Amino acid sequence: MKFGLRMPSLKRSIKARTIGKAKRAVKKAVIPGYGKKGMGWATNPKKAAYNKAYRKTSFSIWNLFK
Fold it and tell me: What is the per-residue pLDDT across 30-62, written as a single tens digit (0 to 9) for each?
């Protein structure tokens, strides 16, 4: 698990804003409950627990400028 500063990736950032955004819109239209708060705990609790800890122990470089 990573602790501290996460290094930004320009390639991943652009991909998330374009391709990823389109994929999420399609899934949200087709799958009921997709993207709702707390659904990660229902589908994959182990991954949800890891992600919760990861978000609390690491931060992005962009958070330093806020």
Answer: 998 888 888 889 889 999 999 999 989 998 888
* Strand positions, DSSP E, the chain: 4-6, 58-60
Q: CA 26 to CA 14: how far, in whole Å?
A: 18
pTM score, two decimals?
Answer: 0.64
DSSP 3-state assignment of 60?
Answer: strand
Distance, in Å, from the CA atom of 43 to the CA atom of 19, rounded to the nearest integer, reads 23
- Residue ranges covered by each domain of the chain: 4-65
From CA 59, how far away is CA 55, in angstroms rounded? 7
